[in-house]
Each structure stands twice: as C-alpha cells, then as structure tokens.
Amino acid sequence: MQVTGTTLQHKHKKTSIALALVSGISMFTGAAVPAHAVTLLDLLRGGPGAERAGRADNGLPGVGGNTGMPTERSLADPEPLPKVSGPRYYTYKPDAERAVKTAAFAAASATDGTRLLTEARVSAPAEIATALEAFYGKAAEPLWISGGDVNEKARGVLSLFERAGEYGLEPADYILPVPALTTASVAAPTDSATPINVSATTSAPVSAADSHDRALMQFELALSEKVLTFAQDMTRGRIDPNKVSGYHDFKRKDGKLSLVLPFAQTGTDVAAYLEGLAPRSPQFQALKAELATLRAAAANDGPQISLPSDILLKPGKSSADMANIIAAIQHTGSEALKSKHAATLAAYQQTPDYTPELVDVVKSFQAEVGLKADGVIGNATVRKMVGHTSKDKIQKVEVAMEQVRWLPDDLGQRYVFINQPAFTVYYHDRGAEQFSMRVVVGSKSNQTYFFQDEIETVEFNPYWGVPQSIIINEMLPHLRQDPSYLDRMGYEVSVGGRAVPSSSVNWFGSTDKISVRQPPSGDNALGDLKILFPNSHAIYMHDTPSKSFFQRDMRALSHGCVRLAEPRKMAAAVLGTTIEDVNGRIAAGENVAAKVPVRIPVYVAYFTAWPNKDGKVEYFDDVYGRDDATVKAFVATTKVRAAQS
Known about the structure:
The chain has 645 residues and is an alpha+beta fold. It is built from 21 helices and 23 strands.
C-alpha cells in the first residue's frame, strides 16, 4: 500500500492572526486556563489533548518531545491527514509481441517451396515465439501443408477454432484465412468407364506459383502460432489476471508449449489433442454445459420485465409496480413456488395493493433465492426477481470459465472455497461439499483479493493487530483530536517495539514504527478466533462481534478479511476436531494457536457464475465490477491479436 498526502502549506497571514488571538486571550483573561478546558490553542493544534501529547520526551520515534512556545505548525492550518490507498484496477495491456526469427529455420535448406518458410512474417508473445523458433529450427517438413495444399490436419484444427466459443474463448482470436489453390479441380462423371485426370494443373506463371508457395508457408507459420496460442489459452486463460488489478494475485501456469507442435507433428488428430487441454474439473464442465444451454436459449429471450432498482415496498403498502413484481416472480420463480401459490397468482387482478396473500408469495420467493424472507421488497429482492438475461449470463459464464483456468484443474479432495459475490464459504472434504455458511467480505473501497493459499493455523482468543491502513485512514483523525483515544478504548500501542501510552505519541508524525493491537476480549474485532493462511495481503477468516451483518443480503462490509457466520464450525472442520473441543479452547481464555494437521487449500475466489453442490450454475452480482474489468481485458487481447493476423 502507498501512503499519500498533501504537503502542509504554511500561511503566514493566518499564523500571524492566530498568534495575535492567543496573545489577546492571555492579555484579557489574566487567569490560568484549566488543564481540561478546550482552548483556542487546542483547536489550532487539532483538538483537545494535542498539547499534552507533545509533553513526553522518551527519545522514541513518533513520540512527542518537550514543548515550550507554540510552534508555527501548531498555529497554522490543521495538518492534512495522510491516506493509505489500496490496490487499483489497471488499463489492461496484453503481452508484448515480437517478430519470430525465421532465418535459422531448418526449412531454409530445402529445395522445394518450404524454403520460403524463412520469408514468413509472424509476431507473437515471447513464450510462443520461442517455441516456434525451437520447433522449426529442427523440423524441415511443414505440419499443415501437404502436396501444395492445406492438409486435413490443418482443416481439423481450423474447424475446432470455429468452435472455440464452446470453451469460453473467442473464435476470432484463432481463425485464419486458407490460401486459395492454383489448380482447377475437374470432376469425373460417375458413369464414365474411361479414366479421366481429375486434377488438371493450370499453366500458371512461375511468379504466381512462388506467390502461392509463399502464402502457404505464411499460413504454415501463422497456424502454428495460433495452435500454440489456443493451447495456452485452453490451459491458463486468455489474459494475465495480475494485469487486471492489484487485487488479483496468481502465479501463471506453464502451458508446456514445447510439447504442442511435436505432438502435432506425430499425432493423427491434433484437434482432439487440443480439445483435451480444456480443464477437466466438474466446475468447468458444468459451466461449459451451461454456456451451451444459454446460447441455445438466447434466441428465445422475451422482453425483460422492468422494475426500479430503488424500490422499497413494505407489507400493507401499495405500489404501481406491484403487477410487474408478480409478473417477475412468475417468470423467475420455481415451478414448486408457483404451484404452492397457484390460487393467489391466479386470483391476482393487477391491483397495486401489497396484500398479505402477496406478501406470502414474496416471502416464499425470497427464501427460495437465499434472501431474508421478510416480505420487504428492496433492491436485492428486485435483482433476484428481474434476474439476468441470457446475454448477461453468457458473459458471466465466459468470465467464470476464464477464471477457472487460473486455479488448479483439481481443487483437491479437501479444501475451503470462498466465493465473494455469493458472500458464502464452502467446506469440501472427501471430494464433496460438507457445509457452507454466510460470510462478510471487503467493502468496495476495501476489497478482498482473489488468490489461493493454504490454511496453516487456528488462533483462539486472538489479538487484533490493527493494519496501518486502519490506523491512518480511520484512527488518526480521532487521535489528532484526542491522543488518549486508544488508551480509553483499551488498545495497546508500541513504538519501535516498546509499549507506550497512546497519549504520549505524536500523532502528527510518521506512523511507520507505531503498532496498535486490541487484546482478546468480548469486543475484539476478531471475536473468539481467526483462521490463518499467511499471505502478503494480510487476509484471513475470523469471528466477529457484529453478528447482525450476516442477516444482510449484501455483505461486502469488511476491511478486506473474511468474517464467518459460524467460525467455530469452520475451525473444528479444518482442525479435524469437534465444536465442543473448540468451545473448550475458547473458554480457557488464553491466546493460543493450533496448527492445522494437514494441508488444506483455500481459494479466496470471485465468481459471479458458479455451480452449486448439485451442479446447477448460480448467478451473483458483480459487487466489485471485476467482471467488467475482465471483459475489457478480453477486448484488448482480441484487438492486439487481430492486428497481428
């Protein structure tokens, strides 16, 4: 994170006025000001207690020294607060491309048209260019050309590229035009007994033949580049997630490009080989099947039911949108729901009154889609009622299929999966989901990252080490007004590793060597426990005293860590113990850490389309706008690739 701030501007005129005011007060009052009173000097310094904060001098960095006469800074405008800024979203820049070096190709020694491969001009990202140079530096025979024409192996690959959309890829990224033939094919009559030459070569000028050979060799090298690109995209995705935003953190997979063209050289069905590179996980297969279903249904999308996003309708009230609300439920609700309330739905006469019977319908719908079944129709309920068009869902699934490629193909038999847009964490063991629970994730201004790690420790009765971002962005304004703020709140403060009172720290100075932590207690921000998977983002799962947050439908509310609705249940699961054992460790009241006995991957993920335990794909809102950023990266990638084709 980066600390930014505006440089303090000293204004001589205001300083002079302030000095005059202070002098005037001293002259006219003629009496001592009580130590606890709020004085003008307090206000100029930033609030009560600021003067007292500077009286201690223990030689520690960040701790105030002796104060005599008021300083110029204390009498100037209040010092602007610094700010810790989080990661940002980037303008996506695809991998840089370079020209493939063809001079050393083995085909240069050939006597036929393949010698012209050295004259082919193709640009590609460095990894792909290197793989092309390594292969054609050894192979003298072309892969995709036979007998002066594009062969069946090439045509099979091109046919697969036309179906790239089935795998969530963009066909335009791979398709190439096939060079035109210089021969005229003559069809033989099927009833003729006389042998006929069915392929008569036209007498073409030598220059035309050379031009055709050059076109074939250009096609040869270009198709190999597209094959490598497709293979890489199938295994690790079209884009580099780390270039989308600072909230993405992934080690990119090795596409093993050195194996692709040698297989194409010896294999009989290159298209089948390339198709087999797609992820085999059940999640990817469910998304692929969903994409096919959505595309088939897209043509039949009817008119979208419209409802205002800012609606707030409570039981007993009325709304002109009531008819559309019921129509939306009939459109998106399950058959079971519609059957249960068939009589109410049939009797509804398009009236605006939100009657008890209609409230029951809405409550059933809310329960069905995972919302609080209170009958109050707000924007969360409206989003579920209106649903997503097939076009919206297709985009979500395409983004999800890309993101699946960033993760391991096999998530493991035992793992924890946090899906931020769903505000849910899932615990898997023995290859199946054992339970799930609600979570609170980072707010839009304090987003939770997208990465993977391994759970290592469960800490009971934890201390909360306050991050610098919270000290600076949220605590510092209070501390500049009242340096004893943390002392009164029960926090522990240390400077350079030495414990000091909060009131003795100069909160106008640097906070780099200042640490703040909250001791274990019923009010501790982490509650009774935290589950650690050490990472550079300081993100972990933990308990919270703010239990009411779990009743909300939109739960992007934290500073970035993941709050668990049932932390003791999750702790027992990852430790391989019982909830009773966890309860006992917490009741002991000691701050202790327990090592997780086995390796458990944790995926802190972000999917707006994801299959549930039954394989049905569910859809969620893009709370951080990451899908939009990913789609922009797709567009930028296709644009660069089109320019090189």
